[in-house]
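User: What would this chain look like folded?
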Amino acid sequence: MERISNMIRDGIKPDLTGFTTVSLIRDGNTNIIKITVCRGIKRPYHLSEKGLKPSGTYVRHGVTSAPASDEMIRQMIKDSDGTTFDKLRSINQDLTFQYTESYFKSSNAPFEESNKRTLNLINDDGYYTNAALLLSDQCEHSIKCAVYRGIGKTNFQARNEFTGSILKQMDDAYQYINLQNNQNSSIINLKREDHPDYPAYAIREALQNTIVHRDYDYSGSILINIFDDRIEFISIGGLVKGLNRELWDRNTKDYRKL
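Assistant: Here's the prediction, encoded as structure tokens.
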């Protein structure tokens, strides 16, 4: 009985011991060990050595147990953790943070495990969250930049895709856009002053807003299209729940009156 209890405690994550009981039943001269498993509140549970993936997560089908699909695992995580994307357990728990660590280090900010917990990159059960996935080198999302000659998409010139930590994507995309930001000159009094097509702060704010406010529940990429007369920042997702286009336009109009 002790060995079985240890197997449950050490072999299954999150901790399932609070939802299991191991008892002894005597049937004449026969001893029977009875194991009762209640429905846990932090599904999906998985084998510790296999990780939170189909090879370590099983669901019951009749009298057999079958590996859970990625979609089933995601749905169980949502049912247990809620629907806030950044706080959900990440399916990928094999994360590295080389770029994020160097990013924090350059700002003289610590990035230890305690800091990760404070930033909700690690939850109370010790799992990496989706917020950690976004900052990790294994981030599944990307930013795609395309450059067009003229004001339409008929004359394509160049494109690039940036991957890795969203901090790295932000830095790489910002540098790429600046390479396309033409420098112009104007004569003021007796001096020539150089200035770009777009001020740096405008590019920075547009890029950061696009990254911060996109819906990461979708797997599509952020799109940045650079034309002769404009730059388009296309962020994935729609208006927040309860807000439609008509209400948005009305609120924006009332705000401008103020």
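The chain has three domains: 2-80, 85-135, 143-234. If you want, I can go into more detail on any region.
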